[in-house]
Amino acid sequence: MKNNYPNEQQKFDKTLAALNREFASIRAGRANAAVLDRIMVDYYGVPTPINQMAAISVAEARILVISPWDVSTLKSIDKAIQSSDIGINPQNDGKTIRLNFPPLTEERRKELAKQIRKFGEEAKISVRNVRRDAMESFKNQKKKSEITEDDFKIAEKDLQELTDKYCKDIDKAVESKEKEIMEV
């Protein structure tokens, strides 16, 4: 029996990548176009991401500029940003939308840190679910005598080590993002 688990490892990697995407969408007091990734604009009845409707650039450390390719979508983009939970009011000048990122308040930093920990815990749950599913598969193989008791124990140990490694990686990512958020 092989002692590597490409399917499980791929699922763990996807979980870690999803966590990092979530973290990228959390603003840390600096202009970051990723905060707009989850905002959908109603464009002719179809929810469309802003980055597919406009050029997004960082003008200064705390200012994002959104330049729609179709100027008629300015109001829709403006409305979508206002109704989102990013906590920034857009400034529409008729051609572009400017987003000024104010420095984060201590209260907002604590809220974001709590949200980061929640995302981290969800990622760990996902990793544990992958481990649980793999263990069920190993138990079924053992039950059908496809693998020996020794192979089962080795697989269980190796999979637990892999799970622990990814849980530590998640903890490091959470700690790093929390540190970034709490930095004044």
TrEMBL record:
GO cellular component terms listed in the entry, alphabetical order: cytoplasm
One example GO MF annotation: ribosomal large subunit binding
Keyword terms, alphabetized: Cytoplasm, Protein biosynthesis
Pfam families, per database record: RRF (PF01765)
BP-aspect Gene Ontology terms: translational termination
Ribosome recycling factor domain sequence ranges: 19-182
Locations listed in the record: Cytoplasm
Chief place of localization: cytoplasm
Keyword presence, Protein biosynthesis: yes
CDD domains (alphabetical): RRF
Signal peptide range: none
Record carries keyword Metal-binding: no
Cited function: Responsible for the release of ribosomes from messenger RNA at the termination of protein biosynthesis. May increase the efficiency of translation by recycling ribosomes from one round of translation to another.
Family to which the UniProt record says this protein belongs: Belongs to the RRF family.
Name by which UniProt lists this protein: Ribosome-recycling factor
The encoding gene: frr
